[in-house]
Amino acid sequence: MIRRKIHHGFSLIELMISLAILATLGALAAPMLGSNDALQLDIARRLLVSDLEYAQILAISTPDDSISLVVDDTGAGWHIARTSTPAIPLEDSTTNEALVTFFGQGAAISAPDIVIQSNMSENMISFNQNGGLVDFSQTAKITLLCGESTASIQVSPTTGTIR
Length: 163
Fold this sequence. Notes:
Blueprint: H1 12-33, H2 37-61, E1 67-71, E2 77-82, E3 100-102, E4 115-118, E5 124-127, E6 140-146, E7 149-155
Antiparallel strand pairs: 1-2, 1-5, 2-3, 4-6, 6-7
């Protein structure tokens, strides 16, 4: 009668496959454990640049009145309005919704911890019929803050170039 030895445990191949699976899962999960301040800043920056460009387009298409992006005094968001009536947001021509953005709501729901600041008087970045700023005296600078991180956007006064 031949006796067989019964081996308990895992083979080297099984251990290597298990380690490879764990390493892959760890690599996928690691970014989720880090700070999301940079992600929130990126979302807010992209939304702001998009709305600045939209305000420029509106100003070029309506030469009778300049268009402004008005930063909320509390730093919670902004809206697009005519410079002659800055407190009244314009409406989207397609959806008839006010052109208002607040952090933590709507399109900016993924950026609830952002605060926005502007160096312009009355927190208005106003565009003329040529797409440049109404006030040629200074470059418009908008700063986005999230925790210890910041991002800034500058608008050239003469050309309206957004950087």
